[in-house]
Prephenate dehydratase (Metabacillus rhizolycopersici), 295 residues
Amino acid sequence: MTKRIGFLGPRATFTHLAVQSFFGNEVEEVSYSTIPQCIDAVAEGKIDFAVVPTENALEGSVNLTFDYLIHEQPLYIVGEIVAPIEQHFMVHPSRKNDWEKITRVYSHPHAIAQCHKFLHQNFKGIPYDTATSTGAAARHVSQHPDEAVAAIANELAAKEYGLEIVKENIHDYHYNHTRFAILHPSRKLEYTSPHLTPEKEKTTLMITLPADDQSGALHQVLSAFTWRKLNLSKIESRPMKTGLGNYFFIIDIDMQLDDVLIPGAKAELEALGCSVKLLGSYEAYSIKKNIGNGV
Ligand SMILES: O=C(O)C(=O)Cc1ccccc1
């Protein structure tokens, strides 16, 4: 049966392009206007998989995704897609000759953050408005020719929404990659990408330290991984939302969940009073060419 794949839409967002690179044409694409709506849809069984952004190389984690997963909808990460990102500056075609006179810039907060230097140098002092996605920003600009507003988005969004790219590659650093998670209520992906081959295996855990705030607790957590030679590729703290100073940690381990080492580390951490939750054990894929440039 044709799989239904939900993503942060509308059409021509970076997430949509990651979906197309990973799943190809044989799936039904279902666009959602926010990350929580997309996550809810897979939790409720309306779609087979949800694809949402989780982390950008320049800006860090997409907090909304992790917070919604941790606090609202417990799902598993069943796959990861990493893609290079190029941001372009685009306006309504009627403004292509006086684009420097725009008075507002519209985009996803991460896209704005990826282009801060460009915006500071070229549009000092003008307001930035955040959109739910780069695609939503591009669509807004196309539907409001009366507004002196520009969008930051990819080349396919310019094509999709009939906008004119007036400045290419405005992201501040060349290395601009984003990670997307494929989410599902059960632990396994059980789907093979027709286009991409997995590059590595990963396990993501959420760890909460004991409530009694012992000194060295984080050190003890890390040493449970270190002496087992479990390589960590990410550690990130997020507020528990129960009070100032209460955090949990998200840890990525560079290997698939096994029967010995990761369960051993988990048992050791639990003996220390930590709680440990598996967020997923999955294969990581990477897209080599820039997505969104229409090639
Ligand atoms: O807004 C989009 O197009 C997304 O898919 C989220 C995003 C935003 C900025 C960089 C990469 C992904």
